[in-house]
Amino acid sequence: MIYIGIDDTDMLGVRGTGHLARMMAAALGAEMRVFGVTRHQLLDDPRVPCTQKNSAAAIHLDGGADADLDALFERARRLILADFVAGSDPGLCVARDVPGGVAAYGRRVKNVLVTQDEARGVAAAHGIRLEGLGGTQDGVIGALAAVGLAAGGDDGRYVLVGGVRELSGELPISALLAAGIDALRTPDGEAVTTGRVLAEKVRPARRGGRPVLFVERDADHWRPLKLD
């Protein structure tokens, strides 16, 4: 698996980082298989400059041995700069076979204030390409964190996977599974295999490296939850 992490690409009143990640996924999908895009919530702290909520995005791609990471990095770089938002501080990271140290770094960024120097140091130690593409370049912190958290397999939620974004109305569970969701569970982990789901703005969580939709009972149907 190859992960592209991006962060700090937006400003108030314009498209967000998640939207940009989906646009990039669509462009890259013409050249290689895209498994999905995930959103990762980072530290919520007034000391962290951010647009609204401090989140980053990761694009999940087929990590075939013949994939050229340097060429992919340059392709992603061009896509971000082609839609650059003045005043933003974008960061970009591309990695394959992400080591545990980067996943640990990602978990750290969710809980404590991290500097650019730390992010660049972790990337350099593991031979991962990380670059700031404008402004203060603070986006390198979240871009590397998104890669680590996505690779860890148990953080964030999918903002793009299969045909999930096209779902609407009250649907049988089989329709959600056919759209790309791996399983449905209640918040306490109980498997949900029967009933109908109100499939509006479905955003499955990333758990065990798979899209898992958490739901709660609401009258005669299940209602989807958005979990990070």
Could you please describe the fold and organization of this structure?
It is a single chain. With 228 residues, the protein is of the alpha+beta class. It has 2 domains: 2-158, Alpha-Beta Plaits; 162-224, no CATH class. It has 6 helices and 12 strands. It has helices spanning 17-28, 69-82, 100-109, 116-125, 139-152, 173-179, and strands at residues 2-7, 34-41, 55-61, 91-96, 129-132, 157-160, 170-172, 183-185, 196-198, 205-207, 210-218, 221-224. The strands form 3 sheets. It has a 6-stranded antiparallel β-sheet with strand order 5-4-1-3-2-6, sandwiched between helices. Strand 10 (205-207) and strand 11 (210-218) form a beta hairpin. Helix 1 packs across helix 2, helix 3 (100-109) crosses helix 5 and helix 4 (116-125) packs across helix 5 (139-152). The chain is globular and about 50 Å long. The mean pLDDT is 92.
A few lines on this structure:
By secondary structure, this protein is of the alpha+beta class. Helices cover 29% and strands 26% of the residues. It has helices at residues 17-28, 69-82, 100-109, 116-125, 139-152, 173-179; strands at 2-7, 34-41, 55-61, 91-96, 129-132, 157-160, 170-172, 183-185, 196-198, 205-207, 210-218, 221-224.
Form type: globular
Give the SSE string.
Answer: EHEEHEHHEHEEHEEEEE
On the 0-100 scale, what is the average pLDDT? 92
Low-confidence stretches: none
Question: What number of domains?
Answer: 2
Number of strands: 12
Q: Using the coordinates shown, work out and report the CATH topology of the largest domain.
A: Alpha-Beta Plaits
The radius of gyration is 17 Å
How many helices does DSSP assign?
Answer: 6
CATH class of the largest domain: Alpha Beta
Summing up helix and strand content along with how strands pair, one would put the structural category as: alpha+beta
Rounded to the nearest angstrom, the distance between the terminal CA atoms is 21 Å
Range of helix content: 25-40%
Q: What's the story with the biggest beta sheet?
A: 6 strands, antiparallel
Lateral arrangement of strands in the main beta sheet: 5-4-1-3-2-6
Tell me what the CATH architecture of the largest domain is.
2-Layer Sandwich
- Taken as a percent bin, the fraction of beta residues is 25-35%
